Amino acid sequence: MTKGFPEGFLWGGATAANQCEGGVFEGNRGLANVDVIPHGEDRFPVMLGKMKMLECDQEHYYPSHEAIDFYHTYKEDIALFADMGFKCYRFSLAWSRIFPKGDELEPNEEGLKFYDAVIDECLKYGIEPLVTITHFDVPIHLIKTVGSWRSRKMVEYYERLCYVIFNRYKNKVKYWLTFNEINILMHLPFMGAGIVFEEGENQEAVKFQAAHHELVASARATQIAKEINPEFKIGCMLAAGNTYPNTPAPRDVWRSMEKDRENYFFIDVQSRGEYPNYAKKEFERKGIKLEMAPGDEELLKNNTVDFISFSYYSSRLTSADPEINAQTSGNVFGTLKNPYLDASEWGWQIDPLGLRITMNALYDRYQKPLFIVENGLGAVDNPDENGYVEDDYRIDYLREHIKAMKDAVNEDGVELMGYTSWGCIDLVSASTGEMKKRYGYIYVDKDNEGNGTLKRTKKKSFNWYKKVIGTNGEDLE
Hints:
By secondary structure, this protein is an alpha/beta fold. It has a single domain (10-470), classed as Alpha-Beta Barrel (TIM Barrel). Helices cover 39% and strands 13% of the residues. It contains 16 helices and 14 strands. The protein has helices at 17-20, 43-47, 70-84, 95-98, 109-124, 140-146, 153-168, 189-193, 203-228, 250-272, 277-286, 296-302, 322-325, 352-366, 392-410, 460-470; strands at 10-14, 88-92, 128-134, 175-179, 233-240, 243-245, 307-312, 316-318, 342-343, 349-350, 370-374, 416-422, 442-444, 456-458. The strands form four sheets. It has an eight-stranded parallel β-barrel, surrounded by four helices. The protein has a two-stranded parallel sheet with strand order 6-8. It has a two-stranded antiparallel ribbon with strand order 9-10. Helix 3 runs parallel beside helix 5 (109-124). The longest helix is centred in the middle third of the chain and has 26 residues, at 203-228. The protein is globular and about 60 Å long.
């Protein structure tokens, strides 16, 4: 019986364009939804699609505009990743860097050249690029003109993006993800999919219609990819974490199953190729009639993904009792406080065994290889006078999660392709827009207000992770 991780396991780290790239007004890039989400009290109303903000103003600070300036420091940053021994680097493309407005017939060559350079830099060090086609990005022009993913036209614009990048990088990139955390559309519609609601409309119907368009676009991406290079591996991406019942009461168990299905719904379609019956019944109950084009069902059926990628930060807890459930806390996914778990400074519950449970649930359900593309601990780091951070708390978190991951592979037989921990270099938090919520092995000198030198410094976890990768996950001390 083999122990440890398979040969060729893809160790690495992950970032997103809108959280690290910056350079928003350079290289002919257009503005996207992620660029108009401010830091501060208006952030959540804007992300929810309830407060309309389609331009930048002078009153707000927009963290994505500079982020950590990866646009100018990518060589230095990728060299640091190579020093850690990365086998894989997951990053995303900014749609509006390639198609500034989103509906052009020809791409922006300057944007493509930037990604040429990033990919070539990875390959120079033998780092496999794992490219997320869209990590919440929607060009603002498409939100203003067609209403973003509520419109079928988006499928055509997304296809155009796919044709361009798949042809351009067909000999350089093997692994692709169609949409980052596709289920976030249901929780933060503007951040996840550029959706702004109009007065009095059925928000649930709008979200499910937008979801259908994204699912069709994902299937088309898979189809186009295989035509251009049959060796491409295409994955979907889920914000994962199993939901536990608050008590053994059957109604609590049923509620936890319903909560899990809310997230599985997208992956059921992307991996199995059809809408599950429980979702069809839900639409029926809510009077939602999805508009489908002829051939949509065949397209979904014939173009399923090769692997299931997901983010895992914590498990969740729910109750069927509305009064108890009213006490939910946490980030995007409301959860009861689990008395058996510790929590991070942001209230995210730390549950390494939950990762093993989630991996088994996904593998049992889909029987496709898994890829953990986000996992990590957001924490306040206090550097010394040299910028060095002794982040033992982060090492402890990662160690326990990697152990759980190893158990899922060795004890349970789960097929796992790789592990790219989130925010391998400090970046802007997607949920809060803060810099102080840090995940990285590399400290970036910048604060929540945008002040700082942007100097990079290795944390204690840098050398720890280097050792983990160097021993293929054997040495976790």
